[in-house]
Amino acid sequence: MEKSRIQARAKILALAAGVVMGAAACDRADEVPPPNPTGTPTVPEPVNPATVPSPPPTVTPPADGAAGSAAGTGTAPGGPTAGPIAGVDRSFISEAMSRGLAEVEASGLAATKGADPKVKSFAEKLQKDHTQANEKLKSLATSKGMTVSMTIDPAVQGKLDELEKLSGAEIDRAYLENFGASAHRETITLFERQARDGQDPDLKAFAEETLGVLRSHLELAQQLQPAGTAAQ
């Protein structure tokens, strides 16, 4: 009888142990992720481009000799140099422009109202040459930040006013006397001083270049002086 009770208790314990082991196996099965029944590959979530840092920009070094070629000047190589204009250069610009404007106006009057064909031809040449020189000088001064006055010296303007009242042989004579040889000697002296003592290299070069034209004008004016007239 006692033996039967012991056997029954052993069966109960064995049955209980089996239940416990089965429950533990179920718990481990819950921890394993289920297989992918469809076989569809897992797609990663899309990346937001805004969150990805941009690579640093690539810096290209300048060509040899290019660095600093126009740095701080704002001008292309070979062009006029920018910068403050010295007093001597400002004086040259003002006087040269005043003289050039007077030559253009006087030559226009002589070419239109004169009588001597040689004087008229001379006047036409001066009008063209001085107009070109005036335009170049104004362009140079403007590139350097200077506003050029387009007025003529009052004393010279008085001579122009008198010239305008004349015609024929009278205007030929007055034109050569006031805007011929003597006027060009004074202008040549002005340009020689600028070429020698000027501070701005562009204005110095302009003065040197224009001197050749002015000297040719002087030679022509001397040839046109009336016979017996002293060189002025």
UniProtKB/TrEMBL annotation:
Source organism superkingdom: Bacteria
Signal peptide annotation: 1-25
Record-annotated membrane-spanning stretches: none
Pro residues bias (residue ranges): 32-60
Name of the protein described by the UniProt record: DUF4142 domain-containing protein
Pfam families noted in UniProt: DUF4142
Keyword field contains Amino-acid biosynthesis: no
